[in-house]
Amino acid sequence: MDIYEIARQLSYVRWQGDTFMARCPAHEDQTPSLSGKSGDDGRTLLKCHAGCKTEDVLSEIDLSFRDLYPTPLTATTPTLRSSPSTPTTYDYCDVDATFLTQIVRGADKSFYAQSKPDGEHWIQKAANKRVPYRLPDLVDQSTVWIVEGEKDVNRCWDFGIPATCNMFGAGKWKAADTQALVDLKTVTQVYVVPDNDKPGLDHATAVAAELQRVKIPVTIVSLPNPGQKGDISDWFNAGGTVKQLEALAATPTPLPAAPTGRFHLTRASDITPKPVDWLWDGRLPLGAISLLAGREGLGKSLLAYTLAAQLTRGETPGHFLNTPKSVIVVATEDSWEHTIVPRLLAAGANCDRVFQVTPPPTFPNDVAALDRLIDDEDAALIILDPLLSRLDGKLDSHVNAKVRQGLEPLGLWVETRHVAILGLMHPNKNTTGDLLTSLTGSRAFAEVARAVLMLIADPDDPTRRLLGQAKNNLGLADQPTLAFTIVSASIEEDITTAKIMWLPDDPRSPNEIWEQANAPSRTSTGSSTTNISDASTWLRKYLTERGGTAETPDILKAGALLDYSKVCCYKAKKRVCTTRQKRGQWSLPPAASTDVSHRPPDTSDTNDTNDTSLAGVPPPNSAAAQTEDTEEVVSGRGL
Question: Do 68 and 104 reside in the same domain of the chain?
Fold first, then answer.
């Protein structure tokens, strides 16, 4: 056997030049520790760097020392499988590894399919079900490479590249092959590598059109100098590397127009209309990304955790009313021990149904992993707090195309699940234009989201918070503007936190409130004083939640996510921090470090009278909501 045939018997193979690393089958190997290379005599040299004996490694993959030597080509011995003088076979299996069809490729490059319908005798006929090659190996893969033949697929896997192809070569990709990838539910990106001839290019274009039809992102990757009729195996043989291939995929050739006859038409009469299901009636749709935006300190996170708490009790007015569901929270700004869990408890959450994710996922890389979490924990809501930090660090959040590259795979995935994604965002410092223009980063955030909720401080009463619908692609945008205030709540004798108390609706629309709040008579556009004041409020909260002290680089990085410049942060430091600092740290004065500045003052009988329910119907229309009758009036509101 040659080194490539041996590598195919191993898992997690990674090549570097003519040497590979793989997981050793003779021990529980989480970090690949088995190396392989070709000796001067053509023999494959294996070494487990964890100390396993070579005979034990070979035994685990049903090989012997004899298999490490190349098979001699003599008249009395069989030739290598790759020799053109003998047929080569490729097995096609269903996703559960059930054998379906074997493709036999002859010495003259002709091929035919054969199967065993009775389990014993071969007949030259393909099985009734059609699947791509090596389908079981694609389970849990988010990225898939499509090449033209089985030989090329196997060579890609030798380098650790998850690849596949269809039966019978170029021009034979079918809708069933596409559907098999869709049914995996993990594939978020496909790269198609054409052979260097017209049939190969036509084949790649046809495959791309098929994947576009089912909304799987697809890119055609053209190889440089592959040779006449060259394929990816030829390109690797000429010195091409995985790193070079990934670079080509990052700067792809634009997709050519789909050839005539490749478009698929579906009659509107054949499409069954479906109603929109809402996690929160009329405001947060299931199967979509939604945003909750508002300036620092207004209570975005508190509102999100109030929604989460209600969902865990089955009390959210919407599709899951009377059906408790779980919530997955990806939060990187607030402390779980000091902030998130106390707020959840104050809101009455069933904390057995709220899950912290570590390490925090990034997108589009971790869509498949997130899919598994949904099924495992019966979740219906994913909170990303803040959404901006969940994009892959290589993606510029101010460039539309890069934001879409990170969010569109997430949006395509959530359309297939009965789940709502709620991303929390901050507005920028712009006080002109509409609400959606005010969101930090690229406009693509608001464009990809199907619904946007905006949280604004009441310009006439800073203690009131107003929640309005800035965008709603799947329902009515003129939802009532909800109002609430934030009050203190004790969950244990020595733990005080914040909770929401709902107030009567506000008659103004969110755009009217936004324009009023940013009117020239109220604030100067771009006022540096306003920015520093906002940054000071944020910095005081940031330090308080971390015990009064934090590292300078961490503070500046967190501030940058909110569009606070380094200069702005340092000016806020002068207002907030003690004069004597340890090098590399910012600290609150001793008295301030024990005071949660964003916490509202205690109100009488807060724990007995404040309701945290989200509004299913308008709250009471009088100030009675804040009196001793509040519990009776509010607790039954739409629930």
Answer: no
